[in-house]
Write a structure and sequence with these properties.
The complex is a heterodimer of chains A (112) and B (116).
Chain A lengths: L4 E3 L2 E5 L4 E6 L6 E7 L5 E8 L4 E4 L2 E6 L4 E6 L8 E8 L7 E3 L3 E6 L1
Parallel strand pairs in A: 2-11
Antiparallel strand pairs in A: 1-3, 3-8, 4-5, 4-9, 6-7, 7-8, 9-10, 9-11
Chain B lengths: L4 E3 L2 E4 L5 E6 L6 E7 L6 E7 L2 E5 L6 E5 L5 E5 L8 E8 L11 E2 L3 E5 L1
Parallel strand pairs in B: 2-11
Antiparallel strand pairs in B: 1-3, 3-8, 4-5, 4-9, 5-6, 7-8, 9-10, 9-11
The chains are: A mainly beta (112), B mainly beta (116).
């Protein structure tokens, strides 16, 4: 069963613009992680934010977490064509133990 | 840096056949997870092992079984294959340790299983 919903489902932007993806979840969590997946390939871990953290940065990535609203956002600044991929949020913890429960994903297309 | 290795990358089987997927976790990682991703779907958790013992079980059919060996590699065995088993199968590993969670899971490139 899905833990999270992501929105938008698909996003198309111009290179250099910022991309924002949102994720909502339903149960309590220990952390929330964001992954990138190029078509038919493996999932690449981007960033992990713990339940007691509100914001985290890594390079051009900025993640926020609002546990009161059970939501998270991923911001990619100054996007590049190479950022074109699907992005998934995944939650860990609470009653789910340490397995990951994934959201539905956002397909990002960055036009050169 | 060493990553999670999965083999084979692609596998074609017919209905009712069996398949074995292999996973070699990152060295010194103590936890292995298996996920199934159907076409256009998000990954779904199947089963996990911590220090060679099954630690959690998800939506894994009874036709599937898995184990983790003394060298920490893991195998997912699938029998009586059905058309609906066609999917990408991912293995991930992490260093969970005694502290529990809050460690990222690192994924392999997956095995694409096609059932004819």
């Amino acid at each position: 069963s899905q833990q999270g919903e992501e929105d938008p489902q698909a996003l198309s932007i111009q290179e250099g613009e910022n991309a924002t993806m949102n994720c909502s979840y339903k149960t309590s969590i220990n952390n929330l992680q964001w992954y990138r997946q190029n078509s038919g390939r493996g999932l690449v871990h981007l960033i992990l934010i713990r339940s007691n953290e509100r914001e985290k940065h890594s390079g051009r990535l900025r993640v926020t977490l609002d546990t009161s609203k059970k939501s998270s956002s991923l911001l990619i600044t100054a996007s590049r064509a190479a950022d074109t991929a699907s992005y998934f949020c995944a939650t860990e913890g609470g009653s789910s133990g340490d397995k990951l429960t994934f959201g539905t994903g956002t397909r990002l297309a960055v036009r050169p | 840096a060493a990553g999670v290795i999965q083999s084979p990358r692609h596998l074609i089987k017919e209905k009712r056949e069996t398949a074995t997927l292999k996973c070699y976790p990152i060295p010194r990682h103590d936890t292995v997870y298996w996920y199934q991703q159907g076409p256009g779907q998000d990954p779904q958790f199947l089963i996990s092992f911590y220090e060679k013992m099954q630690s959690d079980k998800g939506s894994i059919p009874d036709r599937f079984s898995a184990q983790q060996f003394s060298d920490y590699h893991s195998e997912l065995n699938m029998s009586s294959l059905e058309l609906g088993d066609s999917a990408l199968y991912f293995c991930a590993s992490s260093l969970r340790g005694a502290g529990g969670s809050n460690q990222p899971q690192h994924f392999g490139d997956g095995t694409r299983l096609s059932i004819l």
